[in-house]
Amino acid sequence: MNALWLHFSRHSAVWTTPNHSACVLLVGLTIEISMMFAVAGVLLAKVLPEDKKTKILGIPNRWFFTISFSIFFVFIEVILNQWGVLVWAYPWWNWPNVWLIILIGYMPYMIFSFWVHDMESMKKKIAVVAGMWGIVIVCLVLFMGILKWI
């Protein structure tokens, strides 16, 4: 979506990274960011209480961790932005307007991750994750391979 935004806006992607990376995979996506999400997924799975009904500070634990980790990850992004290793070109996706990054950038990732984590069977988990990968592959083939938009 970020690369498509760049293609259609002809100005900038919503977030970009300077070319100071071991490997830039797509616009705004480096190997470092991909590894961060991989590690974050393991971390998030490890901190979740086994009982989905457990509350933390009166909030259902899945929502507590969704909100708190989204805020924490955006805090890290603000630091990276200040260091010049993560670039935000739009005022609505930039400091101090970080609420959109929390709501659109991280919360869907966490909600989806927790939803898959809480599924009863491994078969369902594999099917959902495989379906997500299928969507990604179709989009890459279409937008990168056929249309050459990204």
Summarize, please.
This protein is mainly alpha-helical and 150 residues long. Helices cover 61% and strands 9% of the residues. It has a two-stranded antiparallel ribbon.
Structure, described:
This protein is mainly alpha-helical and 150 residues long. Helices cover 61% and strands 9% of the residues. The protein folds into two domains: 2-118, no CATH class; 122-150. The strands form three sheets. Strands 1-6 form a two-stranded antiparallel ribbon. The longest helix is centred in the C-terminal third of the chain and has 25 residues, at 122-146. It is globular, with a radius of gyration of 17 Å. The protein starts with a helix and ends with a helix. The relative contact order is 0.12. The mean pLDDT is 91.
Using brief descriptors, characterize the structure shown.
150 residues; two-stranded antiparallel ribbon
Q: What's the structural blueprint in terms of helices and strands?
A:
Blueprint: H1 2-9, E1 15-16, E2 24-26, E3 29-30, H2 31-47, E4 55-56, E5 59-60, H3 61-83, E6 87-88, H4 99-117, H5 122-146
Antiparallel strand pairs: 1-6, 2-3, 4-5
Helix pairs in contact: 3-4
Largest sheet: 2 strands, antiparallel
Q: Strand portion, in percent?
A: 5-15%
Radius of gyration: 17 Å
The tally of helices reads 5
Count of distinct structural domains: 2
SSE series: HEEEHEEHEHH
How do the strands line up in the largest sheet? 1-6
Class derived from helix and strand content: mainly alpha
Give the integer mean of the pLDDT values: 91
Low-confidence stretches: none
In whole angstroms, how far apart are the ends?
A: 10 Å
Globular, elongated, flat, extended or rod-shaped: what is the shape? Answer: globular
Number of strands: 6
Helix content: 55-70%
